[in-house]
Amino acid sequence: MIHEVDEVLKGLIGGGALTGSGIDVSFEAPTRDWAARRNSPVVNAYLYDIREDVARRQRGQVAVRDERDLVVKRRQPPRWFRLSYLVTAWTKTPQDEHRLLSAVLANLIPREILAADELPGALGTLGLSIHVNVAGVQTEARSLAEIWSALGGELKPSLDLVVTAPFPAYPEYDAGPPVTEGALVRVAGLEGDPPQDEGRAHRPHHLEAAREARESGRSTEKSDR
Asked: Superkingdom, according to UniProt (predicted)?
């Protein structure tokens, strides 16, 4: 799932005014060694934090349907994760870096929600949209200064980019075939009951017992006489 989000971001960041510019989009950690190796303008999107959005966790089951809209599997609802990226521009001059960041902002601001049909692989299969928040209020525990210190580099202008995306829950369970016939109920006598003749087959048991009692009483009266 994460690599598919990377693929989506690469297309968004490198689109718009940057289409055909030859500027690369990198996801490597922007360390001192990495910065020393680059030899062309680059936009770096470093994934520095992955956390579940527990407020969006759901319970129960989700039906998986085929092309005929029949339920073929069931699975747990997907879990949502916040992927936080540190987006920076790397050129020879600060002015060019600022122009690059401006172009990236212009590409990302209109795309706050990406529909499922725009997403690749498993992301698109889930049929859910993902949310993109750029340069918003930072809610993670680590500050950007701490991140740069951990990378061993100098603080640079950056955009905090957060993508909230679903991750499919496993395993999936096969669903039973759909019901195509109505229910059929048959009523039979209790185990050990003598077989009923045709004329008595549909007579309720309590009425049959009463009739037999009456016949038994009549036979007793005749014998007394």
From this structure: Bacteria
